[in-house]
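hey so i finally got around to running both of the ones u sent me last week. sorry it took forever, my laptop kept dying halfway thru and i had to restart like 3 times lol. anyway pasting them below in the order u listed, first the sequence line then the structure token line for each. didnt double check formatting much so if smth looks off just lmk and ill redo it

first one:
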Amino acid sequence: MRQLLIAAAVTALAASPAAAQPPRPSEQVQQYAPAIDRSADALLNLDVGPILDAMDPYRAHHRRTLRDMARRNDPDFERRMHATIYGTAATMGRAADVVAAAQPALRHAIGQFERDMEAAMAGAPPPPHARTGTPPPPQPHGDDDPWGD
């Protein structure tokens, strides 16, 4: 019995760090998908008939929702819209996982760039010819011959 309790305690301790880890970015993104889906449904129920009546008062638009307008030319619109929401969430989740995995390397690269820039700014200014883009004057060799002959 004692060994069973020890094994259970060890198992609980070993599992607790994994359970305590925050969800992956992809899981966080996909948790928003149902709320976005419900928001899209609410938006599709928006009655734009009065707005259309105000824009074109000589034509009766009656009750006309965005859903009615979308279904008019595409009866499968809602199914495709819902699938697109969840498919986009999955794709964005995968991208978020990639960015999270690359984050340490990106932080290191940015830190190195900052250090390199600080070192460059602290160094001596470049010679005048380097600032203007003109080639440096030739340096004489030996007997003051500019061509080295």
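and the second one:
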Amino acid sequence: MTNEQDEVIVDNEEETNEEVEENTEEKPAKADKPKRTPQEEYEYHKGRTERLAKKLGLKDEKVESVKNTPTDKPSELDMGGIAYLGQMVSLKGKAEIAVAREYIAQGKNILDLPDNKFFLQDLQTLRETAEHDVAIPKGKGRSAQVASTNIDLAYAKFKESGEWPQDFDTAKKLKDKIVEMEAGTASIYARK
């Protein structure tokens, strides 16, 4: 008798498994909701804020400031404003963006900046200064180049006239250069 009961139990489990499989197959797929635009997303959150403030009994400046916040501020320099100025006046670099921000902080409109002669003049001055700074070589290598140039000049003068320089340091460096050059030519002949 125990065998029959065991069989019945196994049969019941199999039937329930089949029913579960059938139920999962019959469920329809959920349709995706369309995505909101940024403006719709803003309006949604703004409404939720207002409802939550009303529910909690809050009516202060924070909620009012959310209601009165404009979404477009043409007087604020954001990435769109930087892109606009980059297109109109070839605005590049942090220094030029800082100049634009200064003008906007003074109350100038972004859309008026490409026609503002003072803004354009400040940009031109900044660009000329940057070009000037790039043209001047930097570092301690500048002085070494001058010294080697002086020795080259002394060597050329010695080759033409056979005259040694009056300065002891330059004469010593000239002698070292001549010895070095003769050693270099001797090694070239030794290789052949």
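quick thing i noticed on the 2nd:
The CA atoms of residues 125 and 184 lie 51 Å apart.
anyway thats it, ttyl
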